[in-house]
Specification:
The chain is an all-alpha fold. Helices cover 74% and strands 2% of the residues.
């Protein structure tokens, strides 16, 4: 891949395209949240078009995340705005989706149709806040705190779990959907929590050498 140190600084539309994709992701997230907010078990059908549309929107939004990072590095178009807003947009999309999936709109007579429960979402949000704080502290000390392999696996699993849950609800019968979604929810929660361990270990090691 072309290295940013040997690529001239992007200008014009190339400089602004990665940031435009971030804004697009935030816009898609807003439409996605609106669709999920309007859905309820009373509206469920064998192939619920609202959930299918929401799953498609989430996938497109997740792809813009991969695209903006790739283009920013390829064109040497990394900006302060992008460094702050790109991870912010990611967390808004994923955490917002999980909050809604664990909410009353996806609860049928006490049964969480999406598999996610409130405590699972609390664990996932707590992990994100903790890791963000640890990375901010490290970068403030001049230490590279870029995402490691565990963080990337976590992000991939979350990006698969959300549309997977929506497709499961829309296309499978309820007993099968609940089994699939419960498995996805537990796997996502456990992997997300465990993905914080390398950051915590690194922070402890840095504290001992400080």
């Amino acid at each position: 891949m072309t290295n940013a140190t040997t690529t001239p600084r992007a200008v014009g539309w190339r400089l602004h395209t990665p940031n435009a994709l971030v804004w697009l992701r935030l816009g898609l997230a807003g439409v996605f949240f609106a669709l999920l907010s309007r859905w309820s078990p009373d509206h469920q059908a064998d192939a619920d078009p609202m959930l299918l549309a929401a799953a498609g929107l989430f996938v497109v939004a997740a792809l813009t995340d991969a695209a903006d990072g790739y283009l920013a590095r390829k064109w040497n178009a990394i900006t302060r705005f992008g460094r702050v807003m790109d991870p912010f947009a990611d967390k808004i999309l994923v955490l917002g989706a999980l909050v809604l999936l664990a909410g009353p709109g996806f609860n049928d007579a006490g049964t969480p149709l999406a598999g996610f429960t409130g405590w699972m979402v609390v664990v996932i949000i707590a992990r994100e806040l903790l890791v963000t704080s640890l990375r901010g502290r490290a970068e403030g000390s001049g230490i590279d705190a870029s995402a490691n392999w565990s963080g990337k696996i976590k992000m991939i699993l979350q990006s698969v779990a959300v549309p997977g849950v929506l497709l499961s609800i829309a296309l499978l019968d309820q007993p099968m959907s609940q089994r699939v979604n419960t498995g996805l929810a537990w796997a996502t929660t456990i992997v997300t929590a465990l993905s914080a361990c390398p950051y915590i270990t690194r922070a402890i090691a840095q504290g001992k050498t400080a």
